[in-house]
Amino acid sequence: MVLTGAQILVEELIRHGTDTVFGYPGGTVLDIYDALYVSRKRIKHVTTAHEQGAVHAADGFARVTGRPGVVISTSGPGATNLVTGIANAYLDSVPLVAVTGNVAAPLLGKDSFQEVDIVGVTQPIVKHNFIVHDVRKLADTVREAFALAASDRKGPVLVDIPKNIQRDECEYEAGESRCQDEVDVDGRTVQMSANGRTDAGGQEGQAGTNGRMPKAGAVACHSENLQGKNELPCIDRALEAIRSCERPYIYCGGGVVSAGAENEVLALSKKLSAPIGLSMMGLTAIPESYELNLGMSGMHGKYAATLTQSKADLMIAAGVRFSDRATGDIAEYTKNCTVIHIDIDEAELGKNIPEIIELCGDAKQILRTLTDSIQEKWNEEWVKKILMYKAADNAGENAERFSPANIIRTVRKFSKDDTVVATDVGQHQMWVMQHYGFTKPRTLLTSGGLGAMGYGLGASIGGCLASGRNRTVLFTGDGSFGMNLTELATAVSQGLPLTVVLLNNGTLGMVRQWQGFFYSERYSCTTLERKTDFVALAKAFGADGCRVDSLAELEAVLDGNLPEGGPFVLDCRIDIDEKVFPMIPPGGSVKDIMIGA
Amino acid sequence: MNISTAEKETSNMNERFTVGLVVANRYGVLNRIAGLYNKRGYNIDSLSVGETEDPSYSRMTIVSSGDRQVRTQMVRQLNKLYDVKTAALFEGEGTIAVEHLLIKLKKYGGHGDDPSALVGQYGGKIVETGEDFLVADVTGIPEQVQEFIEKCKSIGIFELCRSGTLALSSGSYNIFDAK
């Protein structure tokens, strides 16, 4: 059948299982919005207050479902408003398809009204981006965008569609693409593919979602070669390291959640009696209740995780990228241990830690291979020591105080295991990581790599819709909330049951903490002399809220008194000098850890 | 022809290294490749690009500097790019590297000598000559081309243009076999 470009786009979105898209209409996407109107019974569009809210919502939606989130924006300012959200998805490896309109092809390059080279702008923060110059290539380009976003290491892909392409017509056939490996967006057909990989053990790796062929020049071979020709294959070296270690430690990141390899990590941990430390992105991979789960590691990680890591003689790291916030001083970090690094992205191997045993491929398969190839190990002394460290982490907390930790634990008490929790960025974020106690994968939406304040509200809207409109919690601070709180309008218009837990300390707490520790308490520009009445504000948006000053008050509200049909803001007043502990100063190590004030 | 192996392996942090690439031949690709070097903080010393026998693809040769870790990183990062068919490190005995130079020289500059002899010494051809200038076309390994340019400085250079290093793997392999 003959369809317009806009209709083809909508058909392809639906064909890829997209039932909800987020976005904001505008001049160069009028045709797409017209097609969405016609198909409104098959695909829901959520209009946000700002494109940034839309892209964060699509990101939150993707983190919950594991499938690409979709955001649509107009050209120019609409497109540039996506940039933070795209960068966020890129740094946290979230599958995202961003569709932007652009001015009609004859106007491109003329500095036309609302024209921005968004392909150029977003180039460093996408897996790939396309501009479509021929309506006949549109369907394949959208297919390729979805396949790329969701394959291997996931990430954002942008498709820029000039207005004339949306209006042009061509014959459209639903169903599989003619050839998944052929994409022609610029007048030539080129055989390209995403990286299908084989892992270092010689197993068959996970190919792209369309079973696309690996790139030429098998990457794993490069890896072997670059390490030197006379060495054993990596998998054998890894097994040897595991067999000979005494104090194993597993470091588990977002790649484990992305690969759905949570059970494989648990199995390996049990077989080796190896404790597990988690990166922020990997925090939901292992239930908090698991005895050998030490919680988050890194700058604001649990004391037990940091200490255990520093004492381990072997670290098996899966789906992590050893960011500076996670490791501190790299040399100190790896001083005592051999590192086995498992990742689907070969470029992560050796990027931040040079001397490692590299296992490139799907974490699930590699972890299975490792677990199946080793004998059970039990180091009584090691396990005892770890449990002792863990006990120390949980000691000495006054359960009555209206502290961030107790507020978060109280919210947890009234949440379900599968409740989706979003956070913004800063102190409250770290407190949530430390004290919430996650149980199920894909229940945490947080800006890990980019650290984007203002992420949370949009993400919670996407997460709530992805969860089937179940009660969703947003922990935020008064700084972060202030950035994108206009999305309360969206949550109200969508009637979403959001519990917004605002840890309100009247300051940019994390920056203040650094100013306190490292800048002689010169609190430059961080004390917010605002008079915002967040409860009145919530009401002005058509939501509701109340001020909370004690745990008893908090419990009273959470205990069945939250509205089902819209967001509720809990304005929790906490002390301006609440700190996040433990803290390893930037570039520091376990020796520098600060446990408390 | 002056052909020899290039890029001797050393542990020097700033030792030059060469990456060969086969990439999709479409606009924007050069930008993506150069952007990656920029993003990762690595300088490009030279870059050459041209269509292959299959017009769908371009072949690039990029010379850059860095230690082993940098080399490994760059090749791996390049291989992740959608438009990159393959990227391979060219080093040691298995590499043929040449550079092409066009240079416009003063005919009787410097010590007053005709530079034709020097051009001949480096296996070059004179492609244009005028009353007070000549244009030479010299091809050789990058170090020899550099040496030639150094010698021309005392003669007097109007202008020059270098192709940047072009590299192929030696033997009957192609880049897809590069290990």
Describe the structure in your own words.
The complex is a heterodimer of chains A (597) and B (179). Chain A is built from 25 helices and 22 strands. Chain A is of the alpha/beta class and 597 residues long. Chain A folds into 3 domains: 2-181, Thiamin diphosphate (ThDP)-binding fold, Pyr/PP domains (Rossmann fold); 219-393, Rossmann fold (3-Layer(aba) Sandwich), CATH 3.40.50; 404-573, Rossmann fold, CATH 3.40.50. In chain A, helix 3 (51-65) packs across helix 20, helix 12 packs parallel to helix 16 and helix 13 packs antiparallel against helix 17. Chain A is globular and about 70 Å long. The two termini of chain B are 26 Å apart. In chain B, strands 1, 6, 7, 8 and 9 form a 5-stranded antiparallel β-sheet that branches. Chain B has a 4-stranded antiparallel β-sheet with strand order 3-4-2-5, covered by helices on one side. Chain B has helices spanning 29-40, 68-80, 116-121, 142-153, and strands at residues 4-5, 16-24, 44-51, 57-65, 84-90, 95-106, 125-129, 133-140, 157-169. In chain B, a hairpin with a 3-residue loop joins strand 7 (125-129) and strand 8. In chain B, 36% of the residues are buried. Chain A binds chain B through residues 119-120, 123-124, 127-128, 148, 185-192, 194-195, 215-217, 219, 221-222, 225-226, 345-347, 349-351, 354, and chain B through 22, 24-28, 31-32, 35, 39, 55-57, 68-69, 71-73, 75-77, 79-89, 175-179.
